[in-house]
Amino acid sequence: MSEQEVAEYRKMLAIRVSGFDVPKPVKMFEDCGFSSQLMGAIAKQGYEKPTPIQCQALPIVLSGRDIIGIAKTGSGKTAAFILPMVVHILDQPELEKDEGPIGVVCAPTRELAHQIYLEAKKFSKSHGIRVSAVYGGMSKLEQFKELKAGCEIVVATPGRLIDLLKMKALTMTRATYLVLDEADRMFDLGFEPQVRSIVGQIRPDRQTLLFSATMPHKVEKLAREILTDPLRVTVGGVGMANEDITQVVQVLPSDTGKMPWLLEKLPGLIDDGDVLIFASKKATVDELESLLSQKGFKISAIHGDKDQASRMEILQKFKSGTYHVLIATDVAARGLDIKSIKSVVNFDTARDMDMHVHRIGRTGRAGDKDGTAYTLITQKEARFAGELVNSLVAAGQNVSTELMDLAMKDGKFRSKRDARKGAGGKKGKERGKGGGGRGRGVRGVDFGLGIGFNPESSQTASPSIPTRSSAVNALRTGMMAQFKSNFVAASSDSQGNTFSNKRPALTGFVSGGSIGGDINRAQTATSSVPTSGVGTTNAERSQRSLESQRLGARFDALSVGISRSTPFYAFSK
């Protein structure tokens, strides 16, 4: 492909890349140069062509580069690091006794670790590559024996991996391929110290891959510290919901309306495929399981109080079709990859939008456009409704009138929305929002007059809406009066009585600074000029006159045009 074709292809797939010498994306798995055995395994899993994240990540990882991969849940990230891992291992010398692993994958939860383990086994079996999974809830002794027997790939949760490293069940001397999957979730669960400890025990010439659905500051910081010259690949928006999933939000008066809704809708949902229901509390999960079982539904539930063996057995029966409905807490929100799930029901809303995105990502996996996510929200959840509206809009989903009305009850959401629309507040009170509720507003510009008038408005505007010239005159008069009574040097950290060579600033004047911070500092600063004419020297009066001229010239410029990049704030009447 030519450079133009590459750019068009990335744009079509919503792929954004950053870094130097980025390899071109691939269109087919055949373009990757995989062995016939690996291509056979890919075909056996039903993969026809790479997903967007795979199109760009595969050539990057196969070239040996470090990568930061950011993509929505259900995008096929697992295959994007497992397939190159198999190739990487085949290129290494065979393991000797008491050596290994070569590839290390860290995941935040047992369920995700087990899911990655199953995927890795599917692709590595044809080449005789051994895969081990180590995570809590299973016998540590059995895991110790398995690791001692040797393996090329270890998939683990951070805590259990550190335990087994301390037991010397494995060494990291041969580890040259490290994957941190769902890095944001690992940090959410408090695994940052463990992750850093594991990274510190792996040789520095390793290849490191970091995949995440969102990119909070802590993960960004970790990536800068442990990756070498990485390429960053983003598919879609960071932390966005999967656009392949249809989202339906049902606004209910109270929690008592949830169960009737579920009983009415559940039979139809089961007809479309398997159903995954999320509840926020273990007690709610158990209650739902009991009530729905009494109604004759084939149902089961998992949460943190059930041991790992029971959870795995339940998941296996759910996959095999023994159960058609699974109820879970967020313990199953990550890594649960079951293609038969066609509907996700958020019986309780998630604790935050990131968790909501990962919950609904359990359907619509790897490009399947048949998934539907239902969210039940009550009148007391206005704050989350606002976040949900933003997420739906970003994902191109419909927003119902009922949901928007609920979201508008949240003051933070309402104020942000009004600010974007330029809707006015009270006169002289709200910055850039229009005097008396009229006008379009000018972001970052405030004359203390409730400015929001249209700069192109006629000179014969209504008295309640100041014209441009009257606003400038009022500003000039008010601030000149302030200048005469109290002058503060422009430098906020000035220590002496000498004036800075920088442009002077007034009490209540901020140039490119934050509202409040510099103002407060200015108000508490000691004036370097007397507040009256008594005791002033000729030099001081000359200095004040010079500053007055400069200030006047600055305000004269306002009659020509007001720069959006330099906000002016005044507290004149």
TrEMBL record:
Organism annotation: Stephania japonica
One Gene Ontology term of the molecular function aspect: RNA helicase activity
Gene3D superfamilies: P-loop containing nucleotide triphosphate hydrolases
Domain Helicase C-terminal residues, every copy: 258-407
Location of the region described as Disordered in the Swiss-Prot/TrEMBL record: 414-441, 520-550
Residue ranges with Low complexity bias: 524-537
A Pfam family: DEAD
Lineage top rank: taxon: Eukaryota
Intervals of motif Q motif: 27-55
Family membership noted in the UniProt record: Belongs to the DEAD box helicase family.
UniProt name for this protein: RNA helicase
